Amino acid sequence: MSPQSKKIHFINKIITSGSEKQILNIAPKIKADHYSEILDALDSQEIKRFVEVLFKSDKLDQIITEIPDVILPDILDILSNETLTHVLTTSSEALASLILRKLPKDKRELIFDQLPMEYVKQFERFILYPTDSCGYIMSTDFFSADQDELAENVIKKLRGFAKSDRISYIFVLQESRLVGIVPLRVLFLA
Prior knowledge:
Blueprint: H1 3-17, H2 20-26, H3 32-40, H4 44-54, H5 60-66, H6 72-78, H7 81-90, H8 93-102, H9 105-114, H10 117-128, H11 134-137, E1 143-146, H12 151-161, E2 169-174, E3 177-183, H13 184-189
Parallel strand pairs: 1-2
Antiparallel strand pairs: 2-3
């Protein structure tokens, strides 16, 4: 048996008969090229146990980057909706984005049904825009006012809006159609 095979055999032995703590200790040491061999040697119940334990790790960011892209969707599909919901709502944006992009669409929709709307809105941005794009960092908060409103009333409404300190423009509407854009500084000088 080659040293590589011995290592895979040892890892599989821990996965099949070790405690969760032992699995969590060894998980960060598993390299990308070992995952396929490890998973091939496990039955479906052992794979499920291994994956559920992996996703409890506080080193999940590190572990998930070692899982090859070709098998990550299958691994994510094994996870329970509860585990995925917990991971998505407690992990970094980068990890949540990676998971959502690799999650099968039907499973992603089931997860979205279980999440509060604030998370769904945030996560939809992860799917729509690549992490290195402008769309990914754009704010969806905006403030609009009717074309016939007085500047004084618009300013009062704006103070009550306070959802975001990143609002720089007022979108002017007439019958729900955009008719103009007014920078905040112009509004306050009016």
